[in-house]
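Below is a filled-in request sheet from our internal design queue. Each sheet records the structural input a requester submitted and the sequence that came back. We keep these sheets so that new team members can see what a complete request looks like end to end.

REQUESTER: design group, bay 2
PRIORITY: normal
MODE: inverse folding
CHAIN LENGTH: 386
BACKBONE (tokenized):
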């Protein structure tokens, strides 16, 4: 008895495809690890050192780790004993969940199966993901947090509307993201907007919002207590705000990390950046606009990977930007698409305040860009058919 491809259930096809993508990533890791060409990423070595300092401290407070410039992402690396294999397995696990969440979300807005497959191929084979699964960076984990927020809000929306318990869990999920890096604050804003928009009774959404706020910032509060106890400073994430702002606003700033003038004393960076913005409002506005535009620039070859795969960036940028404009102009009603656009715009605005590094700073919202890419194709196909 012959079985045609059409007779195979969709979920089996999707599972086979995801497994195929994962095998390619595992093979890439294995080849690099075997050859000794394993890279930790541009900031990976620093996170490895911080993780080791934290793990070898006498107590859970991490007394040996006294650097507050970096976000506490290194705690998770410490839990993995700074082992490259364990870090890869953890990143691969997050990556696998991202792929399955994208499939469920695409099915939720009723995309045809071939577009669901195209979506998984677009993101799953996007070249930077091959490298970032190896790196000791937080980008893959933030991608998991961002995609997970869309998934939980709009796939489990009825449960969120009916009970307060899910908001405790969602608050903890949000809190972990913000704890890893404050740029994840956008998912808290999305959760708050969702909560308020779904409830007309102010008492009902007020209680849920209070619970959501409490659990979203619980980890930050505990980290602040740790820093006050160990280092006698109230720092709730990291103290790199002044430095990052100075990189974004200075006389030779171009919207990216380089070029930049000699770094000033740490305690003066914020004031220098603030004074520059106030004394040069016109150029500061231009720099913000420039960074918003550069968010959509294709990656530089040396930052992306093999030059032959750069076509991926051009395709995703062209179609996702078209999809975003279409959704805004047509006032797309799908809450999934609206939520993704909200986080994309937030992420653009966040980095417009500091600086842009592509593809790294675009990676956490890349699944949404891929989603919008297949979305616009779907919409144009329906228009052509009608």
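RETURNED SEQUENCE:
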């Amino acid at each position: 008895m012959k079985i045609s491809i059409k007779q195979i259930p969709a979920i089996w096809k999707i599972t086979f495809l995801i497994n195929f993508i994962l095998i390619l990533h595992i093979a890439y890791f294995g080849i690099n690890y075997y050859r000794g060409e394993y890279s930790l990423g541009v900031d990976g070595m620093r996170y490895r050192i911080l993780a080791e300092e934290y793990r070898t401290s006498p107590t859970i407070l991490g007394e040996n780790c006294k650097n507050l410039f970096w976000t506490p992402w290194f705690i998770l690396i410490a839990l993995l004993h700074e082992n490259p294999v364990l870090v890869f397995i953890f990143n691969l696990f997050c990556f696998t969940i991202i792929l399955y969440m994208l499939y469920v979300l695409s099915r939720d807005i009723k995309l045809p199966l071939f577009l669901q497959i195209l979506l998984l191929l677009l993101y799953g084979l996007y070249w930077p993901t091959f490298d970032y699964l190896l790196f000791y960076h937080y980008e893959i984990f933030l991608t998991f947090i961002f995609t997970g927020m869309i998934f939980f809000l709009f796939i489990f929306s009825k449960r969120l509307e009916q009970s307060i318990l899910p908001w405790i869990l969602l608050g903890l999920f949000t809190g972990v993201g913000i704890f890893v890096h404050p740029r994840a604050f956008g998912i808290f804003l999305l959760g708050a907007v969702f909560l308020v928009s779904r409830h007309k009774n102010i008492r009902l959404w007020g209680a849920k919002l209070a619970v959501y706020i409490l659990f979203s910032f619980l980890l930050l509060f505990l980290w602040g207590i740790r820093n006050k106890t160990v280092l006698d400073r109230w720092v709730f994430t990291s103290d790199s705000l002044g430095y990052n702002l100075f990189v974004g606003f200075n006389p030779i700033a171009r919207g990216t990390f380089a070029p930049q003038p000699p770094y000033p004393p740490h305690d003066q960076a914020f004031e220098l950046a603030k004074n520059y913005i106030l004394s040069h409002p016109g150029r500061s506005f231009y720099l913000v606009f420039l960074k918003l535009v550069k968010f959509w620039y294709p990656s530089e070859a040396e930052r992306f990977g093999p030059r032959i795969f750069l076509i991926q960036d051009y395709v995703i940028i062209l179609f996702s930007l078209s999809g975003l404009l279409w959704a805004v102009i047509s006032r797309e009603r799908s809450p999934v698409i609206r939520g993704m656009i909200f986080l994309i715009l937030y992420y653009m605005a966040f980095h417009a305040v500091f600086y842009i590094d592509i593809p790294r700073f675009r990676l956490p919202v890349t699944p949404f860009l891929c989603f919008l890419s297949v979305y616009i194709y779907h919409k144009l196909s329906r228009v052509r058919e009608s």
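SHEET NOTES:
- Residues 247 and 258 are 8 Å apart (CA to CA).
- The chain has a mean pLDDT of 91.
FILED BY: M.R.
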